[in-house]
C-alpha cells in the first residue's frame, strides 16, 4: 500500500511518522512546496527505522507529484494553520486555493485514491477537494471527528481517573465551536457516562471539547499536531487494512439526518472503499437542534467558498 501525505509541516510529518512506525503502509511519500523540507522530514523518519524497528519506506519530494503516482490514499494537510485570535474559518481564502491546486495534482497521478482532507476550515476544505477531484463522495472525506472525540475522551479519562482506552464516544457536526458531542452515546467500559459523572462536570467537558483546538492554539501560538496527525493515520489504517472501523468522519450528506448538500461529521463505517456506510443515529430533539445549528454554520462558510472566484 502506498500513501502520500501532502504538506510536510507539523500535522503532515506527524501523520507520516505514525504511518511509518506503525507500518500502516509499505511506502509513504511526503510532499511539500518548500524546497528540501519534505526530503528532510522523510529522511529523518527513515533514519528512525533502525531504532524503532520498522521497514516502511519514507520518501520526501518537493512538489514532484509524479513520485506520488498510484497512491492508494492521499492525506492533504497543506495549508496555513491558525494563530491565536483567528478562527479556522479565517483560513479559507488562503487554504481553498492550496487545497484546490493540490487536489488537481493528486488526481492527475492517483485517479483511484481515497482522499483524506485535514486542512482547515475542515468541512469546507473537504467540499473543495470533493468538487475539484470529481471523485465519488465516499472517497473524499475529512478528518476531524476522531480528533474531537479523542479530546473529549481524554478529558473524561482525566475527570474519571480511568484509562482513555475504555471511553467510547461519538460526536457529530462541523469541526468548529458548534460541533455536537453526544453524552447520550458515551460509555465508559460499557457504562453510560451519565451514571459516572455529574451533569455540571460533563457539560464543562463538552464545552472544553468544543474549543479544544483553540485551547492549544492559545498555548502554542499555532495549532495542534500530535493528535491530529495520529487521527489522520488511524483513518488511513482503517482504509488500507479494510478494518471497517466506526468513526465520525466528515462527508457530504445527501439526505442522511434530513440534511442535504452539506459537509458534516457523522458516524460511518470506514473500509477499503472509503465510506462503506453512514450510520444514522436516532437523535432526540435537543441533539437535532444542535446539529442544525452546526449545519447552518458550515453552510455559511460553504457559501463563502461558493462565492470565491474559480472555486472548481
Ligand atoms: N482537521 C483537523 O482536525 C486539523 C486541521 N489542521 C489544519 O491542518 C493544516 C496544516 O497544519 P500544520 O501542519 O500545523 O501547518 P504547517 O504550517 O506546520 O504545515 C503546513 C505545510 O503545508 C505546506 N504547503 C503550503 N502550501 C502547499 C502546497 N501548495 N503544496 C504542498 N505543500 C504546501 C507548507 O509548506 C507547510 O510545510 C492547517 O490548515 C491546520 O489548520 C490542523 C490540526 C487539526
Ligand atoms: O484548532 C485548529 O486550528 C486546528 C484544529 O482544527 C484542531 O486542532 O482541532
Automatic annotation (TrEMBL):
Record has Transport as a keyword: no
Annotated source species: Catalinimonas alkaloidigena
HAMAP family: Malate_dehydrog_3
A single GO molecular function term of this UniProt record: L-lactate dehydrogenase (NAD+) activity
The protein's name: Malate dehydrogenase
Domain Lactate/malate dehydrogenase C-terminal: 147-302
Role of this protein: Catalyzes the reversible oxidation of malate to oxaloacetate.
Active site, renumbered: 175 (proton acceptor)
Gene of this entry: mdh
Superkingdom of origin organism: Bacteria
Residues that bind NAD(+): 7-12, 32, 95, 118-120
Keywords: NAD, Oxidoreductase, Tricarboxylic acid cycle
One Pfam family cited in the UniProt record for this chain: Ldh_1_N
E.C. code: 1.1.1.37
Amino acid at each position: 500500500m502506498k500513501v502520500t501525505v501532502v504538506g510536510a509541516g507539523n500535522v503532515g510529518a506527524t501523520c507520516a511518522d505514525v504511518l511509518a512506525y506503525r507500518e500502516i503502509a509499505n511506502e509513504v511519500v511526503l510532499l511539500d512546496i518548500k524546497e528540501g523540507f519534505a526530503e528532510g522530514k522523510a529522511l529523518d523518519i527513515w533514519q528512525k527505522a533502525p531504532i524503532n524497528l520498522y521497514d516502511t519506506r519514507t520518501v520526501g519530494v518537493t512538489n514532484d507529484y509524479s513520485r506520488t503516482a498510484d497512491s492508494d490514499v492521499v492525506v492533504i494537510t497543506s495549508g496555513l494553520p491558525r494563530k491565536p485570535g483567528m478562527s479556522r474559518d479565517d483560513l479559507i481564502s488562503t487554504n481553498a486555493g492550496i487545497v484546490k491546486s493540490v487536489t488537481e495534482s493528486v488526481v492527475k497521478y492517483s485517479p483511484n485514491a481515497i482522499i483524506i482532507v485535514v486542512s482547515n476550515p475542515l468541512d469546507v476544505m473537504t467540499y473543495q477537494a470533493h468538487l475539484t477531484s470529481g471523485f465519488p463522495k465516499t472517497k473524499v472525506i475529512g478528518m476531524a471527528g476522531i480528533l474531537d472525540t479523542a479530546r473529549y475522551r481524554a478529558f473524561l479519562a482525566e475527570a474519571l481517573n480511568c484509562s482513555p482506552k475504555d471511553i467510547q464516544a461519538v460526536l457529530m457536526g462541523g469541526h468548529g465551536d458548534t460541533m455536537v458531542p453526544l453524552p447520550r452515546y458515551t460509555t465508559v467500559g460499557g457504562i453510560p457516562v451519565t451514571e459516572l459523572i455529574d451533569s455540571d462536570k460533563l457539560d464543562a467537558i463538552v464545552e472544553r471539547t468544543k474549543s479544544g483546538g483553540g485551547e492549544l492554539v492559545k498555548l502554542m501560538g499555532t495549532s495542534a499536531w500530535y493528535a491530529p496527525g495520529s487521527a489522520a493515520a488511524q483513518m488511513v489504517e482503517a482504509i488500507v487494512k479494510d478494518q471497517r472501523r466506526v468513526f465520525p468522519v466528515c462527508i457530504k450528506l445527501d439526505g442522511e439526518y434530513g440534511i442535504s448538500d452539506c459537509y458534516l461529521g457523522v458516524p460511518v463505517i470506514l473500509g477499503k472503499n472509503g465510506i462503506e456506510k453512514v450510520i444514522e443515529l436516532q437523535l432526540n430533539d435537543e441533539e437535532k437542534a444542535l446539529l442544525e445549528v452546526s449545519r447552518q454554520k458550515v453552510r455559511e462558510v460553504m457559501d463563502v467558498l461558493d462565492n470565491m472566484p474559480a472555486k472548481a
